[in-house]
Amino acid sequence: MARGIDFLIMVNTGTSEVPAYTKVGGQRGGTINFETDTIDLTSKDSDGWSFEDYGISSWNIEGDGIFTEDDTTHDALINAFMNKESLLVRYKYPSGKAYEGSVIVTEFPIEAPYDDVATYSVTLQGQGAPLKVPAE
Predict the structure, then answer these.
(1) Which of these, 89, 94, 84, lies nearest to 60 by C-alpha position?
(2) pTM of the predicted model, to two decimals?
(3) How far apart are CA 23 and CA 10, in angstroms?
């Protein structure tokens, strides 16, 4: 059984030549989504049943947590969004294995209610296929 608390979203805070993955500060939730469109290959020869095949695939990472204004990873996410730059990210499993790849930040809302802690959510849209990284 894997505990959800042990899954981490990590952002490269190093360089592209020497990556240094840092966990996103204040993270509470994190989801990696693998999706594919389908291509309808149904014809009159399909005996009344639809026949689908794989089409274009995509992946993204969604996360949320407590917002920290001076967190290095929060700064990296906001800077990437504002400058329309891609980031290297890693979605790390408890075993140490991970999926990583280049993403763009498509959403990064920060919620600051007067009667509670400030929170964030983030959506990172993958660019190309993610790379499966063996356990460290």
Answers:
(1) 89
(2) 0.91
(3) 4
